[in-house]
Amino acid sequence: MDWQARVHDALAGSRLEPDPGVVEELAQHLAAMYQAARADGCSHDEADRRVAGQLDLWRRDAAAFRPRAALAPAVEPLSTVPSPALVSSVQEIRYAARLLMRQPHFALLAIVTMTLGIGLSAVLFSVAYGVLMKPLPWPDADRLVVLKETRGGLAPRFQAFTNAAYLAWRDEASALDELAAWSTGNVTLTGAGDPVRIQITEATASLFRVLGVGPLIGAVFEDADEATPVVVLSESLWRERFGASPDALGRSISFNGTPYTIVGVVPDRVSYPDHRSRAWIPFHVRPTAGDQLSMFHAVAKLRAGVTPAQAAAEGTARGRFVPDTGLTATAIFGSSGPVEISATPLREALTGEVRRPLLVLLGAVLLLLALAASNVAGLQLARATARRRELAIRAALGASHARVLRQLIAESLLLGLAGGAAGLALAWVAHQALPAVLPSDFPRLADLSIDPTVVLFVAGVSIVTSVAFGVLPALHVRRLDLVRALAEDGVSPTGVSGRSGVAAARRLIVAGQVAIACVLLVGAVLLGRTFFALLHADRGFDPSSVLSARLSMPGPVYTSATRDVVLRQIVARLLAVPGVREAAVTSEHPLAPGGSSGGFVLPPRHASGQPIAVQASPRLVSAQYFAVLGLRVLAGRSFAETDSATSQPVVIVNDSFARRYLGETPVGTRLPGDFWNLGDRPEATVIGVVEDVTYVAAPEASQPEMYFLLDQFGGRVVPPTATLLVRADGDPRRFASIVGDVVRESDDALVAELVMTLEDRLRATTLVRPRLYAILLGAFAGLALMLTGVGLFAVLSYVFAQRTRELGVRAALGASQIHLVQLVVRQGLGIATIGVAAGLLTSLVAARALSVLLYGVQPYDASTYVIVAGAVLMVAVVACIVPAYRAARLDPLRALRAGG
Amino acid sequence: MGTMLARELKRGSTELLILALLEECDRHGYEIARLIDERSRGAISFHVASLYPTLYRLEDKGLIQGRWVEKAGQRRRRYYRLTAAGRRTLASQRSLWEGFFEALNRVARVRHA
What we know:
heterodimer; A: 900 residues; alpha+beta; 26 helices; 22 strands; B: 113 residues; 4 helices; elongated
């Protein structure tokens, strides 16, 4: 390809020797022309023909190319030579922007893909960061610990710490700076706007010192205030009910009718235990009197340099000196063994439960981001080959390899940063919806925000992904092999088709995407099955057929007697409603374990045996309780009309109680009949044994329970909060409004709260988080599948376009339509199969991370993997449809002529 | 008459195009040819045969100046630069063309893009 020689020959016709400078210049022109033609897709012959044509023209005009005055070559910078790197970068960015605007579809697709990927990652990162990594809002938070007490190795049925252990330690705590006690409860607030139920916290004054919390206005209460009725409001309550006015100080409000004086307001940021507590009232830890133990939560600040383990050891040692409260301890702890204290750092206590799910979700969303970025990389690769003319010309014009690389990266950066900015906006919008989506007891909800760390994360991720998907096409553009490498991708003669570097890279990318989609899908299916397993686990009753409602009748407005009257009326009215089969009330909700606890001793079963220490939950129920829930009677009988306030006291126990504590004939055993300090109740006789209620996803599946009949107490012990249960014909939800009406009719000040089926109640309480995780991971998997389907479709179309000529030849040689379709489908399924295999293998390894979150399904559950493989392959088949259709409709003549 | 006028027009416009392209920055022959082709969207694909003679003619007239430039690691290429005289000619040629179009517009309502 000696251009100079050819030019020389062409011009040498005239008498004069062609000017060597002219020859050189024209030769360069020809070389550039040839390269451009080849880059355009011309064959060597065609390009040569063009050049020859040009030479002819020059030859005819040879006289114009007279010798010129030779000028010495200059080695000086041109005015076109770039200027300092910064200016050229700006140039490149402007050029890149212009280029992108000329291809709006590509740019939009790439930006939208990145926005989705980056936005979702940003939201999840902000939650993970806010919950797990952000410093706690209290000073010296790493010295704060949550204290728990156990006896004989057993945890208490409710709360976490006894006054006995607290007082034994408080005055001689050398490992602690401060020790504080608190507990929360719901009260009705009056005296500041409409009455409303809010959650408040009782706490010792030391709580504010432990947390280092100071007031916004006014003061927090001191130790001396512990006996006085003062209250500290949360900032949000103060704003809501007092318009953030300083006049609130000194005003009086009432909780359940008891007045309190406002002395201060604390900022929301430092609310403890969480943002749901809207006020704090003083709490005084009383010494144990007789057998009484009071329970609460305890938190402490370690002395500098003391470890939690050391503090726990000290607490345990002090715990040796607690007074013996025998049966009360058994009732609460299940044992009256020695006290043992544990100390857990506050951060871990608050967030430990959600750490694993959050990290899993964060991993999933980053996989999704990788998928989105690889989609854009595939798009860039396709575009790179379409731009070969432009790239070849730039190279021919002397652009250095580095310059071309920089330009490609500039484009990618523009796309990535645009996607990042839009993703950040998307994340901000999603953040506004977070409080509605996350359960209200999710830790550190108040600390979640789009703060500078999140912005930094978005910027970093945008840049990294831009470079990642920009580098790929840039690597493909090697100046020296430019013509050859690009020609490989041009429409080549039959044979070397689809094997080019670009096609192979794109196929690999899609296989990777399929693998990622598989992993996400496996996770989603496992979590989804967990949720359904939890929902439909055998609880001993069917939660979808029972409607429940909470009735709050606090004192002093209500007394036991008035409550009794109201509840009877409600039950009677409900039973009169057509369609209602059974209605009952109970002191404790049947869905969650725990509840009240009683401890006592039974005489030994045999003469030589030991007395039996019993810990069981005593419950007050109405007669139709078991019928409403559908719990079968296993021995003896259920409550009957004959059991009344004047007849013999009776009790029914559940199967767990009978098996654990009673002998072969449980019916007839005498149990204590008074767990409510009435003082005059004789023993109750066991008349029957019922099926257990199974508490799913609880440490113990069932617990011993005793059921006493409300009727027998003549209205003397009716708890302030009772649960109403209704079973009706058909869908119980239809009766929700009827229940509300009946309650209001019976007492116009009473409102039925949380009226919903037990199943809905499960969804709203115990199952909130499993449901959330399943939904989130399912959404990610769905998106992944969609992106992968699109990616697969794009790569198949690309490969098909590359192989048009080859397929045309095959068709001309007699290949049937079916054969051509098979070719395309085989290629598509081939990629998908490799991806699925890789994905399932990775899932096997990754599923271990999920095992603590699963219920009712194993991480290696075969049916899950089969389902996922099937779903992904089906998506692959769908992605093949259009390219296969095109293959079937191929016109051999057109195909052969294409790119000739 | 038509062919001669066309030829004159073409020649004049070619010179104007080259001067205008060099006003932005220095360029070499192939680049000029390609830019004219691209920017006019192919409408003015004059014979490249006349490009170099035109360049040389302009150089002889002193309106442009060509030099060999050698960049590190590359072959030397011939770049052309607009001279001061060239700038003045360009300005006057431009106003001539603009006047021409204005006249055309007044007479026949022909507008230029």
